[in-house]
Design brief:
10 helices, 6-stranded mixed beta sheet, alpha+beta, homodimer
């Protein structure tokens, strides 16, 4: 496969020209990894029209040399990353304008710019690299697909072991174990494992609650492969489902299908959201779908673009997004079904293959 | 147990008076939890001499009401947390000065202050609540001790299952599973699981490397109970150890013992660090101990105070810190032994009880 990083740096440099910036300081770790390949947890990157230099510390000396080869220079800094940044930028004869990432720098760190004596004018930038990351290349799509495979493989093994009497935390442990066995490098976020009425809480964390016969069990989790994330949700029933569970499940399942059938490049995030929302509203559960339809997924598990009632941006071909309609009935329970899809010109391609019909565990 | 939160808020208000602040905006989630008990992931807290108001969104309505009762008011904001913050602060007749947490706000969010039309002067503050959190009360120490028990219980179960032929990722899965079974609410950080030469990397992440007979295996991980973290490291050998492994292990073990025997209130972080470092230097491995002796542990797994060559601050009685000397020989391997201790007036109390002599797995 060709190395995608030089083209990414070129695209970023075109943005610098457009923004009239002489350079850019990158502090967001996902942005840094996208441009250089560096996967460590402490570094900054200085990009100018001619140079790109990664500044990191001695712990990452070998790793940075290997990962960044062919993409940028590496500077190992003994005292602090900031000293390395100042030394990289230097002090030219004339005033220059540098950008920094306003979303990826604390106020305290940004104060360093005004404390400096150098002839640099600093200007906050927003989403320059994030914008480039929206359209995935072939290698990135393959990595998300692998992360999807790891997640669905683990899910199959977990559902074989789930039964009434286990706590949510125990199920979470079985899930994390299965994810690691299947090869997940990291958990993109702490798995959501919720049973019974707690499935009505869209952001429930696993608790000591014991699973009971007839409970919904909602599992929302992901895997990581080569830095790329997957994000998937399934809701099952422990034992036999009742009529209301079947109805709510069917509403979400049909809404999910409408979205998967209809999402394609050129529509807005709002239009994509409406594919599922319109159906849920028509079935009488509109007030119980309190979040957006989905979000981009890649080096971060939540990234651009958004699919929601207020998302006016257009979905491009090559975006990878989640489709995750849900219906939550307070104090009763909720259902969410989530998959990751690659947006195409005329349709979308599901990257997380796992059965979607209602599963009754141990029936 | 008495509710510690009112006394914490009083102590913070005394700091506001000292800093001549009319109010403080708290955005650091651990600080927020310390003052109010709120354990969600999206909220801000406005504290003045008279009032304390937590602003959060509809997802946390029930949870915030329960967790914050007796500590502060709760405002549920439909559109954005910032709107709730502005409405809480209001617009008085005279100019007032508010502080914010410079380390817990992005540059982009801090820009909102200058965009506001209100008569508020905003000033960055540093470590106000963090300073209060250094000395733990009885309930906090009990929570760290519980988190230590969960971690050591899991470790025992993992060492029963470890063997040559497993990958680091598989061991990581066994460990995460055991932690959840023992009741850990969350992983304070992704476990470090490193085998063979990779133990020389102090921040190695679990990989697909297969454990071989004679390998060092280093496990550095923690558990979370009631929001409080533990942090522990053990290094074992798969099968029989050789003479060099025994020597390096002994250096670290004796250095660990010197620190545990000597750490007490009133010494500086630098003096505590020297207890172990002096011994390691005397044994000829000074250059191979590249990090500090330890750090505070509590609601965050890395917090104040620091124990290192440059830490001049004094350790108070009631601080909970890690003691984690290590020796790392590049391309050969490394040993680290880490425990959490409660600093007392005349000694320290180990909160993570687990054997420290060299364990040879499956011998």
């Amino acid at each position: 496969m060709t190395d995608a990083r030089p083209a990414r740096l070129s695209a970023l440099r075109a943005l610098l020209t457009k923004e009239m910036l002489d350079g850019l300081l990158i502090s967001g770790l996902a942005n840094l990894r996208y441009l250089t390949g560096f996967s460590g947890s402490s570094a900054m990157l200085v990009v100018t029209a001619r140079d790109a230099t990664l500044v990191t510390d001695f712990r990452y000396e070998t790793q940075a040399a290997e990962e960044c080869e062919g993409a940028c220079d590496v500077r190992i800094e003994a005292s602090s990353l900031w000293k390395g940044v100042w030394d990289t930028i230097g002090d030219g004869a004339s005033v220059r304008t540098y950008g920094f990432e306003g979303l990826h720098l604390t106020h305290r760190d940004a104060q360093r710019f005004s404390d400096q004596e150098r002839r640099i004018h600093w200007r906050p930038t927003h989403d320059l690299v994030e914008g480039l990351r929206v359209v995935k290349d072939v290698g990135e799509v393959a990595a998300v697909r692998s992360a999807g495979w790891v997640a669905t493989t683990a899910l199959g093994r977990v559902l074989d072991q789930v039964r009434a009497g286990l706590t949510e935390l125990q199920v979470c442990g079985i899930l994390e174990h299965a994810l690691r066995d299947a090869g997940s490098e990291a958990h993109p976020f702490p798995p959501i494992v919720a049973g019974g009425p707690r499935t009505a809480l869209p952001h429930a964390r696993a608790s000591q609650r014991v699973l009971l016969p007839g409970d919904f069990l909602l599992l929302d989790f992901g895997a990581t492969v080569q830095g790329y994330c997957s994000d998937i949700t399934r809701t099952v029933v422990i034992g036999l489902s009742d009529a209301k569970q079947q109805e709510v499940y069917d509403v979400v399942l049909q809404a999910h299908a409408k979205a998967v059938d209809g999402v394609k490049a050129g529509m807005s995030g709002r239009e994509a959201d409406a594919l599922a929302r319109g159906y849920i509203v028509a079935r009488g559960y509109g007030d119980e779908f309190g979040h957006g339809l989905g979000h981009g997924v890649g080096l971060e598990v939540h990234e651009a673009p958004r699919l929601s009632r207020t998302a006016e941006g257009t979905l491009p071909a090559g975006a990878v997004v989640t489709i995750e309609p849900g219906v939550y009935v307070p104090e009763w329970g909720g259902v969410r079904i989530e998959d990751d899809v690659l947006v195409g010109e005329n349709d979308c391609d599901v990257l997380t293959s796992f059965p979607r019909d209602l599963i009754e565990i141990g029936r």
